[in-house]
Design brief:
This protein is an all-alpha fold. The chain has one domain: ABC transporter involved in vitamin B12 uptake, BtuC (Orthogonal Bundle). It has a two-stranded antiparallel sheet. Strand 1 and strand 2 form a beta hairpin. Helix 1 runs antiparallel to helix 3 and helix 4 crosses helix 11. The C terminus is likely disordered.
Amino acid sequence: MMRRLIWRKRLILTSLIFLAFFLVPISISLGWYKASLLDILRALFMPDDSPLSIIVWDLRLRRILAALVIGAVLGGSGAAIQACMRNPLASPFTFGLSHAASLGVAFALLILQGGALQRFQIYIYNPFLISSSAFIFSLIQVLIVLVLAYKAGLSAGALVLSSIAISFAYQATLYLLQYLYLNEILVSTIIFWTFGDLGRISWRELYLLVSVSAVVVIPYLIYRSFDYDLILSGDDLAKSSGLKPERIRLETTVVTALGTALATSFVGVIGFVCLIAPHAARLLVGGSHRYLMPASMAMGLLILTLSDTIGRTVIAPTIIPVGIMTSMIGVPLLIYLLVKSGRKVWS
């Protein structure tokens, strides 16, 4: 029975991974510029100077690769924070990491003048400056969350509510910066950036995002999968097994803050993916993080890729930013998952 259950989880996980690879060429083929799947594959593996190759490589492939990486990072980060905090509502989004990163980006763009709006596209002069500012502001929020959790002794529900309240403070500060900073171009840049758009990431920024995610964020979350199971069972059991739960919580929040800050600084605020993906994966493979962590990453990249594809095709040639699509899709999906899972959310 146990062996059959393990093979079932492995089959589901393998299916999710194959579905993600299968979705890439299909997503590239969809859009205002119509092309067959065979033409898309030819443009991918035998690129030339044709309009189709330019569209595939310069427009669609870049944003789809960004969706895969960012979706995996957000999905895995959500699962990790939920385990560390033993809270099914915890995520980088609900804990305010995304909003803190957005304030850091606004600070870099407005105060440090790290970018500008050119032909309705945001041009970033120094991606490292933008991402560093976003990461610093996310670290500030990490410290606030940890202080509220350990020093103030807030419960899991109170911790989420207080983080949401702090997120409103970040949004108010962001609006205040836009109101006080008398530069309509830069203010328009911030407003356009907050929509969350995968199409604005450049190849240079994508290389940086992939490098950090593949070297730091994703390997760390996979490495800590077994530790998250122990922490979820209680700090006493984790300590008896030789772990240091406080240290793992600090490391996890810092790593997830790094991934969230990079994603937010390059494509804007993307909500609900980090909250929905772990719940959906938990319904498929259960609560063991050996399978839940990679499944959450796979669900995250699938949700983000599908949301971006729908946003590009539903009213083409107009493109709906993916941040708007994830919110529109995420709210009813999250309610459905919470109702379906009920009290068995950690089973």
